[in-house]
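Hi there,

I know you've been waiting on this one. I reran it after we fixed the sequence typo, so this is the corrected version. Both the input and the resulting structure follow.
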Amino acid sequence: MKKKKVQIAWLYPDLMSTYGDRGNVIVLQKRCEWRGIEARIVPVTLETPTSDLESCDIIFMGGAQDRQQKLAGEDFLKRKGPVVKKMVEADVPALFVCAAYQFVGRYYKPYQGEPIPGAGIWDLVTEHPGDQAKRLIGNTTAEIINPPELAGTIIVGFENHGGYTTLGPKMKPLARVIRGGGNNGRDGYEGATYKNTIGSYFHGPLLPKNPVIADWLISKVVGPLQALDDAMEHHANEVLRAHV
């Protein structure tokens, strides 16, 4: 293994933590610790210096309500986003869920008003198709197609978003939708991947339901991982799939 200590940056835990997003960082921490790898969660708030973020090995950023999203967005665009962009390009693994998934793109266009600039970390755009358009909400399943190491894995989650995301040519979709709306309800894809980073609309949270993704992120820091007894996790995943 490359490292025996992992620092996990949790961006805006006080502002962007809806739909059980805390569960994602807990899973990352525990799946490290169960393998004898020391893992520390580093809360990155509005007041946190960027040096604390730069020292981390894995990045996580979750969803938010409109008011909290605006507060976090201002700081992210000016201060944290440029740092995250450098880290992503340097192959630091990251997971961006829902609002964060939209934030790292080029822009978000509401159904009224001008487009809201994103951090430009990823080549994607999100647009709200109008107040009469269908909101993509409900339990979901999809089959991973990228990264190749996880291809064929069935993942489960819960989506709830009005924005429709379209990937640019630099991006690869995370998964092919089996049930649900996915990125935009049209192209049949869910989420995105770029280098060692993953974005998804799957709440619920994502990693407890799909620990294989957590292990993929961790492995990008420490190297090959010893197997864990995931019988309970696999059973939960199967039960959720059967009830979508």
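Quick highlight: The chain has one domain: 5-242.

Best,
R. S.
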